[in-house]
Amino acid sequence: MTSWLLGTSILLIHLLGIVSAIMALMSSRTSQGAVAWIISLLTFPYVALPAYWFFGRPRFYGYVSARGQRDTVLRRVLVHYRANVQPYVAPSTNADIQAVEQLAMMPLTHGNQATLLIDGPATFESLFDGIDRAEKYVLVQFFIVRDDALGQCLKHHLQCAARRGVRVYFLYDEVGSRKLADSYLNDLISDGVAVSAFRSSRGFKHRFQLNFRNHRKITVIDGKEGWIGGFNIGVEYLGENPRHGPWRDTHLKLAGPSVLGLQEAFWEDWHWATDEVISLNWMADTSSSATDHHVVIVPSGPADRQDTASLLVQQVIHSAKQRLWVTSPYFVPDQGVQDALRLAAMRGVDVRVMIPERPDHLLVFLSAFSFLPDMLRAGVKIYRYLPGFLHQKVMLVDNEAATVGTVNLDNRSFRLNFEITAFIPSRDFATCVEAMLEKDFAHCRRVTIDEINQRPVWMKVVSRAAYLMAPVQ
Predict the structure, then answer these.
(1) Rounded distance between C-alpha atoms, residue 256 and residue 354, angstroms
(2) Rounded distance, CA 405 to CA 250, Å?
(3) Which terminal residue of the chain, N or C, has fewer Cβ atoms less than 10 Å from its own Cβ?
(4) How far apart are CA 123 and CA 173, in angstroms?
(5) For residue 205, which of 301, 63, 105 has the smallest C-alpha distance?
(6) Do 332 and 439 meet the contact criterion of CB atoms below 8 Å apart?
(7) Taking residues 231-236, what's their average pLDDT?
(8) How many angstroms separate the Cα of 74 from the Cα of each of 1, 211, 450?
(9) Which residues participate in catalysis according to the annotation?
C-alpha cells in the first residue's frame, strides 16, 4: 500500500510538471523564461513545481484597468473624465509621442506645470505642504513606508488633514512595507484615514501572485496637484542611514490636467485592493499651472497585455538622435533594451548610463558585469555615482524630452512591478533635467573596459550566474 501511494504521488508530480511545462510554454513572456521553466519542470518537478506556481506567473490576474476594460463601473467614470480633459489634450503629429500615448492608453495634455524636486528635503517639504493645502481629498501611495521619524511626519500630516474633514486614502505595498507596525496603521484609521495594503495575492483565486509588487509612489491633492518619483517614506531617503550614505533621488511635482492621470492609476489600484470605486474630482484644472508643459502619464504593470515599461524605455531610446542620458539604481535591462542602447551608441548618440557605485542589492550589482563589456564596446558610456546611493529613475532625450518616474531598468520593473512614469516632451523641462544630471555626472567615475576585463575568473562566473537569475530579481 505504501509503495502504491509513493508511486502514485511520483506519477502525479511528474504529470503536474508536464502540465505546468505546457502552461509555461504557452504563457511565458520571454523564450528564455519558457525554456528555463520547461527544463526545470520536466527534470526536477519536485523543486520546480512550487517555484513555478509562486514565482512563474507571467501575468497579474484579476486587476481591472479602466483604460483596458469595457462596460465596467470604472470604465463609465473614465469616459466622463476623458470628456472633461478633452479640451486639454494636445494633438501631436510626432510619431514618437503618439507611440508613448498608445503605450500609456492616456493622452498627451497641455496646461501642466512640471517641477523637479531634487533630493529629500525639497521633495518632502513640497509633499507635506501639498497635504496641508488639501481641501477635499488626499491620495497617498508608497511602496515602502517605515515607522521612523519621516514616517511619523507623514502620519501627522495625514491625521491633521483627516481631522479637518479631508478624505484621506493611504495605500501601501504589503511586501515593501512588511515591517510597518500595526500601531502606525491603527493610528491613521482612528483619525478617519482609509487604509489598505495592495495585496498581490488577494483572495483564494489569486493566492499564487506572490512575486508581484506595487512599486508606484503617487500623491494627489484634490485632483489638482500630484507627485511621483523615486522617493519612499523612510529616513534613509533623507540620507540618514550610514549604510547608504547621502541619498540621491529625484521626485516630480505636477499641476494641471496630467494630475488626473496619476489619480486614475491610484483609483485603479485602490479598486483592486478594496473593491471600492471612490468618488473623486475628474475636472481638469489649470489654475495653478504657471507654465505649459506637455505631459503623458504612463502607468505600467504585470496586468498589461504587453510589457509597457520595457517598450516605453525602448521607444525613448529609439527616439534619441543626439543624446540619451539614463539614471537607474538597478541596471539589468532585458535583451531588447540592451540592443536598443547599443544601437543608439553605434549611430552616434551620446548614450550615458548612470548607476550607483555602492550596491544595495548584491545580485543586481553582480548581474551587470555579465553584459557591461558588450555595452562598453558598442560605445555606451557607463558612469558610477560616487557620493552615496543613487536611486533616481530619470531619462533625458536630446534637448526635447525627459521622463521621471518609478521604473528601474531591470526585469522586475519591466514585468513584475506596477510602475508609473511621467513622459514630458518639453524643451524647458529637458533643460532643467540636463542641468541636474550635469551636476550628477560631475560626481561620477566612468567605467572602462579594462576594469571589467581585469576581474578575476571567479567573479566572472558569479556574475554570469547572477545574471541567469535576472528574471526573478
Answers:
(1) 31
(2) 9
(3) N
(4) 21
(5) 63
(6) no
(7) 96
(8) 56, 26, 55
(9) 215, 217, 222, 391, 393, 398
Task: At 386, list the grid cell.
Answer: 560616487
DSSP for 68-103 reads T-SSSHHHHHHHHHHHHHGGGB-----HHHHHHHHH
CA–CA gap between residue 285 and residue 88 (Å, rounded) = 9
In 186-281, DSSP assigns E strands to 194-198, 213-214, 218-221, 225-229, 247-248, 250-255
**SS3 for 286?**
coil
Q: Which grid cell is 325?
A: 542620458
The share of the chain scoring above pLDDT 90, in percent, equals: 59
| SS3 call for 350 | strand
Instruction: Report how far residue 154's alpha carbon sits from residue 124's, in angstroms, rounded to the nearest whole number.
Output: 9
Q: Which of 309, 318, 297, 266 is nearest to 425 (CA)?
A: 297
> Residue 79: is its pLDDT beyond 90?
no
CA–CA dist 312, 423 (Å, integer) = 9
Reference 389, options 282, 241, 274; nearest CA is: 241
Helix-then-strand count for the chain, H and E: 17, 20
Of 419 and 91, which is predicted with more confidence? 419
Does residue 65 sit in helix, strand or coil? coil
Cell of 469: 537569475
Query: Residue 317 pLDDT > 70, yes or no?
Result: yes
CB-based burial label for 125 (10 Å; 0-12, 13-18, 19+): exposed
DSSP states along 355-415? EESS-SSHHHHHHHTTTHHHHHHHT-EEEEE-SSEE---EEEETTTEEEEES--EEHIIII
Structure-block grid coordinates of residue 331: 541596471
158-203: per-residue pLDDT in tens? Answer: 999 999 999 999 999 999 999 999 999 999 999 999 999 997 655 5
Read off the pLDDT of each residue in 384-394 and give the average, rounded to a whole number. Answer: 95
Report d(CA 272, CA 257) in Å as an integer.
Answer: 24
Give the type of residue at 473. Q
Rounded to whole angstroms, the maximal C-alpha distance in the chain is 80
Q: Confirm whether pTM is higher than 0.85.
A: yes
How far is residue 419's CA from residue 408's CA, in Å, rounded to a whole number?
9
Q: Give the three-class secondary structure for 444.
A: strand
CB 406 within 8 A of CB 228: yes
Measured CA to CA in angstroms, residue 30 lies from 202, 304, 307, 334, 407 at distances of: 26, 15, 11, 10, 19
- Is 70 exceeded by the pLDDT of residue 288? no
